[in-house]
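This protein record is not my work; I was only asked to verify it. Would you go through it and say whether the fold makes sense for this chain? Here is the record exactly as it was handed to me.
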Amino acid sequence: MPDSKPIVPVILSGGSGTRLWPMSRAEKPKQMLSLTAEQTMLQLTAQRASGEKFGRAIVVANAAHADMVEEQLGAVESSAQALILEPMGRNTAPAIALAAIAAGGSAEPLLVMPSDHVITDVEAFHAAIHTALPLVEDGWLITFGINPESPETGYGWIKIGEELAPGVSRVEQFVEKPPRDKAEAMLAAGGHTWNGGIFLFRADAYLNALASYAPEMLEAAQQAMAKGRRDGARIWPDAEAFAASPSDSIDYAVMEKAPRVAVVPVTMGWSDVGSWDALHAISHADAGGNVVRGDAVVIESTNCLVRAEGGKRVALVGVEDLIVVASGDDILVLPRGRSQEVKKIIEAMQKG
């Protein structure tokens, strides 16, 4: 692929990120927050796909977040060529279809990224993109596999098949989120990666795959874009047409079915920051293992994560392995290791 052909970043920003409640909530989800740096997750995502290799991004977002997305991108001297405002969530496969159509639906290489992931080694990420490009030009659908560090049961895994080119191999199998014993076996065996949900492919290759494996989804996306309206960079797909789309992930709709799917394994300091525990693990801690942000005092305590904002002051004395988050009128307290159970709290509050 000629180096002059710009890669179009496609940033998926439709998620609600409720696993990081109470800071992350529907009106201001995780990707809009500054969790690991001064910049927000969305800003960091845009910045890692900027420079001469890349064109202007296409962002797919919740319509309620349009002003916030534009404001945050503007603050880091970035702007989207298109801001596609979904009338409702239909999972990743239809969202990417909207972006592929907006990009022109031809040979444009699309780099599809969730807006709420951490990548600390951007050079390694760019090197993996460069490794993938020749196969992308040839019509392959590429996923970036994260070299696994632990027997993680919260991620899908990828079994690596035959090598197609240096650093690129055929995907032999996508593995559902595994039980612990299977994850341990895959880690021990080698030849597997985590499925990080980051992709690179030509717009037409993706749309052609949808035509073969999810034609109703492609038709709905095409109709939604054809009947939608545009104001500057903002695009509102037609709600009725988009509602007719099946709701499915790109993995189920395309990647697990298409014949020419390849993986580039990479170690790039990746995390999906899927819980408060995950944030603790990737954050800089003090000598006692505490990660403290905001108006908080921590005394004679170890291995805690404490965040306080919105005028609340938090004080901890003589405790260990706690997560304490104060945001607005809400305060979360739970033991480290159980932060995935925040979803139980959300469910209980919705019932109550």
In short: The CA atoms of residues 18 and 71 lie 22 Å apart. DSSP finds eleven helices and 19 strands in the chain.
